[in-house]
Structure formats: C-alpha cells, structure tokens
Amino acid sequence: MNAEVLLMFVLGVNRAYLYTYPEREFIAEEETRYDEVLAQRATGMPSQYITGHQEFWGLDFVVSPAVLIPRPETEHLVETVLELAHGMTRPKVIDVGTGSGCIALALAHELRDADIWAVDLSAEALEIARANAARLQLDGRVRFVHSNILEALANTHDFDLVVSNPPYVGFGEADKVQKSVRDFEPQVAVFAGEQGLDVIRPLIEQSHRALKPGGWLAMEIGYSMRDAVVNLLNLTMWDEVRVVPDLQGIPRVVAGRKKATGPSLGSANL
Ligand SMILES: C[S@@+](CC[C@H](N)C(=O)[O-])C[C@H]1O[C@@H](n2cnc3c(N)ncnc32)[C@H](O)[C@@H]1O
Question: How far is the CA of 233 from the centre of ligand 1 (A)?
C-alpha cells in the first residue's frame, strides 16, 4: 500500500494509471527517485511526510513534519461539531491547536455562514494551515491566530463553539505510541505533560471564558481519558456533558455545554 502510494508520487500518476499500464517501466531518474523515497520510508518516516499530502474530510491537505498528519478518527470530532452547530445561525467557532488546519477548514467547507477562527502555538503549523486554506480556496473564511491555547483571545467571550484535537499523550505513555509518531510527528502536537492533560486542563478553563453562555466545547480525547476529562468538566459550570464513541466503541470525543447561567457561590462548592 505504502509502496503503491510512493510509486504514484514518484511517477506523478493516480492509481487508475498504475493499474491500466502495469507494464510501464521506470526511466533512470524515476528509478533513482523511487529508491530515494523507499530509503526515506525505511527510516520509518510516514509516507505522508514524503508525499506531502493527506486526505481529510474528502479534502486534500498538504502536510510537513511541522504538523500532525490528520487522522481519520478526527472526522468524528468534525461530525460532532456539525451536529452541535445544527440550527445555529452564523456560529462563531474556534479550533484550538489547528495544526494543518484540517478541522477548521473542514468546518469552513461545511458551515458556509460560520465565522471560523483557528489558533496554534506553532508558527510553522500556522503557515501550513494558511497554505491549506489558500489551496482549498477557503482563505478569507478562517482567521488564523498565533496563541497559547486561547490566551491571545482572552478578551473574547462570544464563541458559540470551541473545538480541539489537543495533544493528549502523557510522557508516561510514550512507549505505547507508534515509533513513527514518536520519531517523526511534532512532540508539541502529541505530548501534554505526564498524564496527557496539560493542554486539556487549561483548554477547559479558557474555553469556558471564551464561550457564550450555552456555547459548546468539543474535544478529541485519548482512549483511556474519558473519566479524567469528564471529571474536569466541573458540573457546576458545564451541562449536557456527552461522550461520543468511534465506530469501534472507543470514547473519542467529549463535549460539554457552558451553563446558560453562571454558578452561584453556593453551588460552586457542591
Ligand atoms: C493533536 S495536534 C492536532 C492538529 C490538528 N488539529 C489535527 O486534528 O490534525 C495538536 C495541535 O495543537 C498544537 N498545540 C500544542 N500545544 C498548544 C498550545 N498550548 N496552544 C495552542 N496550540 C497548541 C500543536 O502545535 C498541534 O498543532
């Protein structure tokens, strides 16, 4: 499968061409180039970093080692946000930790009247996200901001939706992560402190401040984090907390709704 993808990349052809002309032989430069990319792949480098592309939500994204490779399971998060946004007029949405921009741009593609923002701590990732917006002719639809979580927008309190696929792997779990992820994907995109909660914790707090009353936070979580994350969504401040499993039944997305009225002093201690 990988060899086929790399072959298409080197020859600049699609799969249909490959199967229509199986007798096609390499010219010398192609053979050299193919050997080079196979050698790169043999180091464990994901094929997406070699070809520079990954599909997400039916859209073609450019990727580089500055961004996480978009994963199919993150489409569950996009689906959840589309359900939550259903019926909203001109929703104001922010994607925290946008990376390649895949979530923000998939949402911009679907929610034609939404006001979409995206932030990342990595300036290199934001460059890739902006390039993707331009390639997908969605520039002008998403505002990209360099920010540590939502700190650069500390005075904004009118978002309808905060969405995030944050880094959530704990350093203590590094050995459970695929070697290619550990060795090639950006550490800042994957790891978040000892327990994996060092971004999620402030994200929950800052999202509460950034959201309108009644607004939603939806996050992707690690396979064993459901209870920890649900507990962080302090029930005096968040309503309608829900956990969305993926097709294999693994809890994949947690969403919560900012209470329409703030907690009273009494209830905050309950
Ligand atoms: C798991 S990746 C997700 C990338 C992309 N949204 C996706 O789903 O493929 C997490 C992203 O969060 C960014 N990030 C990490 N810490 C952050 C922080 N404190 N503030 C903002 N972004 C952060 C990383 O640079 C990375 O792009």
Answer: 20
